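Lesson 9: reading folded outputs for more than one chain in a single document. The general rule is that every protein is listed as its sequence immediately followed by its structure tokens, and records are never interleaved. Here is the first one.
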Amino acid sequence: MNKSEEKVLEASVLLERARVLSAILTRQYFGQDVATPADLWKISGYFFDDAKVVAETITDMVGDAEELLNQAL
């Protein structure tokens, strides 16, 4: 496997991890049933902090994958 192929493979792994994290973010944070004001605890506090960390991680992974793909070309 040459260097370009390795970079593309590494980028695909990063993108798959980002996809999985995105699904987790959607399910655990945005998928919460907030029907009444009493349910607001489901999307506040540590839920919000966790969602922010996951979103930042996804953004970093996608940026790294983009850089790898640019290097492969």
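And here is the second record, again sequence then tokens.
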Amino acid sequence: MQEYLKRSRFGGLADQIGLHLILLIFSFLWFILQWGLCLPALTAGFSLFLLLSFIMRKARDGRLIRREKQLRIRIGGEMALERLLTADPSRAHFEIALLLSMRHPLTMIKTGEEGVLCSLRGEYLLLSFQQCPFSGQITADHVLKLQRAARLHHAARGILCAPCPLSAQAKDQASGEIGVTFYTRDQLIQLLGVINPATDAQLIALGKRKKMRATGRQWLDHILDPRRMPRYTLYGALLIGLYLITKLPYYILPGICCLGLAAASRCRKEKRERL
């Protein structure tokens, strides 16, 4: 879950200040270029800035609500999946089968160590949840084991719920006489998160982990993250453009800094790819 802890409050605040500054400069320049430097142009520019800020705030509020819902589903689904990894195998098979029965017309017939024997539109199938960590891998042996169990229970095919990546051999083995359908980790997290969204207490507990002091290397990795390169490039280009338009000297230094960070992020990306 470290992916939820990467965004810093200072980074978000800096982005908001930068965006509002760009809107303010754009609003004033638009009317100054149309009417010249006069009081009506400044008043109209400030009014346009307020209107754009209001529209942006409303759009941000709606986006935050959607992102919060998606985040609760994602975190809740991951927590529920982690609990299933340590649960009794029969219990884990049953809960996954119960979950899938909410989306498909499954009828559970028998629960065992190998999985849950179900009926789907008159066809027997064996549903199994593989309890392996995300760092593991589903191999052809896991698929073959499910196919043997399906043949033993006279099931036409199998469903393997895999919380870890699938190997190429596993996918090839799944296309045998007894076909196997896979449910991936992302699909399981989405299904589990819909019925088990993260609570406020869980989100607060996750947020407390952000208070750990980062080392200098971690700060450097955070600043020079290759995913920040497009943002650095955009900010640098806008600041250089403002310098060329207004001839004001205090735009040139931040613009050069942003372009320098973009170049450093790109070099760091190429270095990682070579490694």
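What the second record shows: The radius of gyration is 27 Å.
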